Amino acid sequence: MMKIAIFLLVAFVASSNAWSMNPRWADWFSFPAWKRAVTNESLPLHESECVFFRAEGVLGCVNVDRRVVECPAVMNMTELDQSMFSSFIVGIDSSLSFDSVSKFSLYPSLSEYPYYLVSKMGLRGIPIEFCLHDQVDLPVFGLRVTESSCFAQLLDMARKCGSDNVVTLRSFEIEKPTAIQFTHLFVV
User: Fold this and answer.
1) 23-57, pLDDT tens digit by residue?
2) Domain residues of the chain, as ranges?
3) Smaller CB count within 10 Å for the chain: N or C?
């Protein structure tokens, strides 16, 4: 009996950690269900959000005006334990503007650490970077939108959101870096 209880506990923890997601989206594992929910006028939207649906290979983003952009995308987290990330901030360095960027930085939040980290760090002594982009040969971790025209819609959405939402990131540097947040990204 004890073996069964331990097995069920391990299975539950493993399955809940494997879905790095916002608890609000835990019941919506498909893109169509998410899209119906965010376009429903009765659900209040206070900020833009993006969700990457692994099964469908779709990145869905919605802004506060309920404009939905859906893009085919692929995730590259090779060699990383994906369960260590609870969510990402999609944004840019605070010294830039959305008018001048061709990719977004992804600032990860670890499941066991409630703060967002810088997008560039070291992994086993090798520098890595997390990005949301549309370039085929960009050697980074994150999401690649496979249609450039769709990525252009995301850039347009970010430009319309403005640059008011500045967040402080965690790093090993003495001076804490900041980023301009476009949206949150959850992976289901």
Assistant:
1) 454 555 688 888 888 888 776 777 889 999 988 99
2) 2-187
3) N
- The three state secondary structure string of the chain is CHHHHHHHHHHHHHHHHHCCCCHHHCCCCCHHHHHHHHCCCCCCCCCCEEEEECCCCEEEEECCCCCEEEEEEEEECCCCCHHHEEEEEEEEECCCCHHHCCCEEEEEEECCCCCEECCEEEECCEEEEEEEECCCCCCCEEEEECCHHHHHHHHHHHHHHCCCCEEECECCCCCCCEEEEEEEEEEC
Mean pLDDT, the chain, whole residue set: 80
